[in-house]
Amino acid sequence: MKKTFLILMTMVMTVAQAQEIKQVPLISVSGEGKVKVAPDQVSISISVETRGNNSAEVKKQNDEKIDAVIKYIKKANIAKEDYQTQRVSLNPQYDYEKKKTSFYATQTIQILLKDLSKYDELMEGLVSSGVNSIGNIEFKSSKMEQHKSEARKLAMKDAKAKADDFVAVTGQKTGMAYNITDNSQPFYPQRMYATMEMKSFDSAGGARETLAIGEIEIIANVTVSYILAN
């Protein structure tokens, strides 16, 4: 009997406490912050590819070409922490028509160029030293975290301005932020694929511009719930 009484009292107290909890008046809005900056770095993926009928000879030739490429990269004063081998492979390829097996060797190196004015010179030297495949090129900024922080602040300002607009007609005010949710998507730098053309010159003898840098766009999205104040 006592046990039943205690259970009933607990239930009554719980209901009473729930009734005392007041609903917090909120307004939820989304905000977007956008920052556009000119990149000051570029990441270049280069490869040396070699084909032949003898696996050992193919690997040897590929290693020799890569050695020449790495020596050029060092000569171009690229810091050792700014270039790295990404992939090395040696694979057989069978030709069903000729019923013959050939071999395909490749090695890929990723280079971070921190001086965009040297792009044409570097690309010309890489091709001359033995690079025969250029993959994607990604533009970057050395101040990316700073730009992301600025975009987040702009997103919060945008959300606050929207909340103020909505609340203005109700005679209330936007109070303190009650909940903040970051909806930003991962940032992926611009990519483009380069051709194997050497640096060319126009009719006036000047070097052609071969790199359209453009701008990097960093976007932050946020959802904010504000308490409504009288």
UniProtKB/TrEMBL annotation:
InterPro entries, alphabetized: 26kDa_periplasmic_antigen (IPR052022), SIMPL/DUF541 (IPR007497)
Keywords: Signal
Domain of life according to the entry: Bacteria
Signal peptide: 1-18
Keyword Signal (UniProt): yes
Xref: Pfam families: SIMPL
Protein's name according to its UniProt entry: Uncharacterized protein YggE
Protein's organism: Flavobacterium arsenatis
